[in-house]
Amino acid sequence: MRPLVAYFSNAALENNIKILKGKSPQSQHCAVLKADAYGHRVENLLPIINRTVDYIAVAMREEADDIRQKGGKLPILLLEGVFAPEEYQRASESNYLVAIGNERQLRMLAESDLTAPIGIFVKVDTGMHRLGFTPEEAFSVVERLRALSTVASITLMTHFATSDEADSPLFPKQIERMAQLERLGLPQSMANSAAILRAPTTHQSIVRMGISLYGVSPIEGTTGADFGLRPLITLRSKVIHTTEIEAGESVGYGARFVATERMPIGVIACGYADCYPREISEEAYVLVGDHRAKIVGRPAMDMMMIDLRSVPKSAWDQPVEIFGERLPIERVAAWAGTIPYTILTHLAKRVHYIVN
Q1: Domains in the chain and their CATH numbers?
Q2: Other CB atoms within 10 Å distance of the CB of residue 149
Q3: Which residues pair with residue 123 across a beta bridge?
Q4: What is the pLDDT of residues 183-227, one digit of tens each?
Q5: Which DSSP state fits 78?
Q6: Which of 98, 139, 264, 340 is 20 to 30 Å from the Cα of 273, by its Cα?
Q7: What is the predicted pLDDT for the residue at 191?
Q8: pTM metric for this prediction
Q9: DSSP, res 290
Q10: Does residue 301 have a known ligand-binding role?
Q11: Looking at the DSSP assignment, which residues form a beta bridge with residue 118?
């Protein structure tokens, strides 16, 4: 078996849920499991999620169906809403909650005849300008929804654009715009991961645990460990080949790295087809056992090369940590000029998982 393995920690998941609940004790908790649980494979999370939180959220109905087939038992919120009228009936049959963010979705619901009424989340655009009704429109939307027998409950929700930024002028404006809707007397869901961690006034009725659930910080310059969170995944591989190169010889595609002296090179079974970024800083390294080994040359589709000069030869066969408990994915993302989300959601199906 190829030695690239993602080690999934149940203990880390339990820890993260406990931490996030502790920061928002008066709220209900929604686990965001879209994009196959941010690449973590949703079936790995469901046994714990089913008994520890109140809701699940996904992007679309197909993801909700997949979770139901894999044993998800909680109400599931469709964050993008539905795209066809018949999906409302599917929601009615399957205990899905549905977000509504535009007139077309509202009209489709009004024209639907459902087996049972469904819970509706009204998306309010308070400044993200992605989905949702304006705060002014929300009053009439709620009035129309209250007149429908197909609606079991109404919750107002918004999404923060800059809750991860300490001094953003937009963040308090978004909070203020939602506060204007409090006279509707409806539950609200505002807080995403960053807001759970740093803005308790936004917690309201339901908080949405996204990247923080997976032990990753959404706040630049920090890691999940700064908040007591633990990564659910540690990605490890092995050195599968070693070679010695002479001064002046190059490594990898494009010959970007050129040796200045005779040196040992190790080849790791992990590449950009697995999730590791192709464009990476010269500062990037992995951990071979307890030793840092710099990545040299461009990562290829299936492999990447490392400088073994700092690693004792006796340690060359030790596990190689690519990111995880000891090497935060936030650091790897910074080396690549990206965010941890993009790396995690690109974890390939060919990567083996071990759950413990």
Answers
A1: 10-218 (3.20.20.10), 233-355 (2.40.37.10)
A2: 8
A3: 157
A4: 999 999 999 999 999 999 999 999 999 999 999 999 999 999 999
A5: E
A6: 264
A7: 98
A8: 0.96
A9: T
A10: yes
A11: 151
- Coil vs helix vs strand at 136: helix
Do 29 and 53 touch, CB atoms closer than 8 A?
Answer: yes
206 strand-pairing partners: 28, 189
> pLDDT per residue over 325-339, tens digit each?
999 999 999 999 999
Q: Are strands 263-268 and 239-245 parallel, antiparallel or unpaired?
A: antiparallel
* DSSP 3-state percent helix, strand, coil across the chain (nearest 5): 35, 25, 45
Q: Rounded to 5 degrees, what are φ and ψ at 219?
A: -100, 120
HSE at residue 225, side-chain half, CA atoms within 13 A, is 8
Ligand-binding annotation for 1, yes or no, is no
State the amino acid at position 137 in one-letter form: E
Residues with a catalytic annotation lie at: 34, 253
| Pick from 158, 168, 238: nearest CA to 198 | 168
Angle subtended at Cα 273 by Cα 272 and Cα 275, rounded to the nearest 5 degrees: 60
Give which of 201, 214, 242, 237 is closest to 321, Cα–Cα.
237
